[in-house]
Amino acid sequence: MKVVESNESHVIRNLIFSFVSLVFVLFVGTLGYRILGGPHYSWLDCFYMTFITISTIGYTEVVDVTRYEYGRLFTVFIGISGIGMLGYVLSTITAFMLESDLNESWRRKKMQQRIAHLKNHYIVCGAGLVGSNVAHELSLTGRTCVIVDADMEVIDRYLSSHPGQFYLLGDATNNDVLLAAGVMHAQGVFAVAHDDSQNLVISLSAKQLNPDLRVVARCHDLKNAEKTRRAGADEIVSPDYTGGLRIVSAMVRPNVVSFLDDMFKSEDSVRMEEIIVPMGLSNKPLSVLYHGNIDCLVLAIHAGVNGWLFNPPAKHIVQGGDVLMVMTNPAGRMRLEQLMQGAS
After folding, report:
1. pLDDT tens across 56-81, in order?
2. CA nearest neighbour of 191 among 177, 208, 173, 209
């Protein structure tokens, strides 16, 4: 991110320098012709004389300097200087337009402004194979996220199929990058970089900046899992370990795996969601959450020390803090959250 900001500053400095230099030549030329021509030539005449000299338009001289040898030399000086500076300005603008530096800089700053206003979003640190799947799943389920990666090529690969995705180019182990991604207002951080040590530092940095957010970290080597957890990760996921369990499940319980695969690959994005019951809904039956909502199915309720209650009846009394395991789509989840707010 610092490198990107440095490049943007270099672009702006070049543009400012070229325009200031051109304005300076115009000022010197206008002032010089005013002195050479005398007071009977207006400032506009002198400026126009400078402009046609620099632009090589070649109209009749407005300010007559042919009587003075140094006047002609001054015109030559203004012509050479002005044409050179004008050429530099045009070449600089052309180069930046062709390379889309200005457009990219504008779009990046616009995106950073939008990211700064995000609330309860997720930050995906690492846009590789795992990170891109994480961001894709969040997008399918209607959750806003910001992807962070130090390699623009990796980000571009994801943007090719998700052009509207929020992103930041930078090192996610840097506190400034996490702050720019909105870590202070985020709901969770995914530390899914390729290296375990990076994920450990990301977890530590994120938790130090915002202790209230949830951090899920990727861990290749299980011996690093406890270190990452102590660094601040709330949950550790090992793709190799879970992949092994998935392979076994495909062998011994193929129909279950097929069902889960179909669920995750469905176009209507049916998912298993967890919903926390608000305190205002305590001592009310579960049926209040089904009014007008046919897009969800409550499979189980986790009631603290009482453990799990599977397939709860509609008359079951819920308490604040209970966790509902619900099979639903994004529309059903949002409707359920609205019903909860209305019932409380």
Report:
1. 776 666 776 666 666 767 777 777 88
2. 173
- CATH 3.30.70.1450 residue window(s) in the chain: 270-343
- CA distance to 186, 189, 293, per residue, from 212 (Å): 9, 11, 31
Can you give the pLDDT at residue 2?
Answer: 43
Count of other CB atoms within 10 angstroms of residue 172: 30
pTM: 0.59
Identify the CATH number of the domain defined by range 270-343.
3.30.70.1450
Q: Which CATH class is domain 2-99?
A: mainly alpha
Mean pLDDT of the chain: 82
CATH for 118-243? Answer: 3.40.50.720
Distance CA 325, CA 274 (A): 5
Encode burial over 23-56: b for 16+ CB neighbours within 10 A, e otherwise: eebbebbbebbbebbeeebeeebbbbbbbebbee
Q: What are phi and psi of 291, to 5 degrees?
A: -65, 115
Task: Output Rg (C-alpha) for the chain, integer angstroms.
Answer: 32
Query: By mean pLDDT, which of 32-36, 152-156, 204-208, 249-253 is the weakest?
Result: 32-36
* Residue from 21, 61, 27 nearest 47 by CA: 27
Residue 38 has pLDDT above 50, yes or no: yes
